[in-house]
Write a structure and sequence with these properties.
9 helices; about 70% helix; mainly alpha; single chain
């Protein structure tokens, strides 16, 4: 398969060709600047992201059914069979425990809908790169930058909501004699550091997923039997680690944003 050849394009070639041509008229860019060179327009990553979202909805539905089952005693006793509901519960519980260690139990529960869903989505996108005929939506900067900008907006919004003006004042640096005299130095540094957060989040995830997908693809193309198995196992580890890194940094950014007022900054 080619770089943008998937089951979507193989099973529905005419429909997919018409869909991409119509979408390209409105969405494709025709400008070029520095590293933004000419590129082929494709929707395979969008389809992969939608597939991951649908699978997460299915997982959430299965989990909801499991806790509403009378045999499970209202969800207090976990089911004996380790199915999708139990896997989802274990995954989200791990995210909650990670969040609790960083931002406290109250904030961990408050932001779990975001952090848990984000972790599930990134992992489901990453793991598609190890399935023949699929591409990981996270091996493109468009997907990852969208996720990173969402994190950027959320932690700044809640930083302002929880701390008000105090959140903006911490950009001015430490106070000396009751006034932040070093604000001309600290404000540019703080702005650059906050802008660098979504950039580093998106570039890190993109670079690792592109490299992982290319390595597995090349090995599978050269020797398709047995030899790719160790690389697939390594690719699974990469998918897990990159999900952990993105989610953990998101938790840290949110935790730092909402804790300033409590510390009197």
């Amino acid at each position: 398969m080619g770089d943008h050849t998937t089951w979507f394009t193989l099973l529905m070639p005419e429909f997919w060709h018409a869909l991409e041509n119509n979408a390209a008229e409105y969405l494709a860019r025709d400008w070029q600047y520095m590293m933004f060179t000419a590129t082929s327009f494709t929707l395979v990553h969008v389809a992969g992201a939608l597939l991951a979202a649908l699978f997460i909805i299915f997982l959430a539905t299965r989990y909801r059914q499991s806790i509403q089952d009378p045999a499970s005693k209202n969800g207090v006793v976990p089911p004996r069979r380790f199915g999708l509901a139990a896997i989802t519960d274990t995954f989200v519980e791990a995210v909650f425990n990670l969040s609790k260690d960083v931002m406290g139990e109250k904030n961990a529960a408050k932001f779990l809908p975001l952090t848990g869903t984000l972790a599930l989505f990134i992992f489901c996108c990453n793991i598609q790169g190890l399935i023949p005929g699929f591409l990981p939506p996270t091996d493109t900067l468009k997907t990852n930058l969208g996720l990173a900008l969402l994190v950027f907006l959320v932690y700044n919004f809640y930083g302002l909501k929880e701390n008000g003006v105090d959140y903006l004042l911490h950009f001015c640096g430490p106070k000396i004699g009751g006034f932040p005299w070093m604000f001309p130095l600290f404000i540019p540094i703080e702005i650059i550091s906050h802008i660098a957060r979504p950039v580093s989040l998106s570039l890190r995830l993109t670079g690792n997923m592109v490299a992982d997908h290319k390595v597995v693809g090349v090995v599978a193309l050269m020797i398709p039997f047995l030899v790719p198995l160790p690389f697939l196992m390594l690719g699974t580890v990469v998918c897990i680690v990159q999900t952990l890194v993105f989610t953990l940094l998101t938790i840290i950014y949110i935790g730092l944003a909402v804790e300033h007022h409590e510390e009197g900054h």
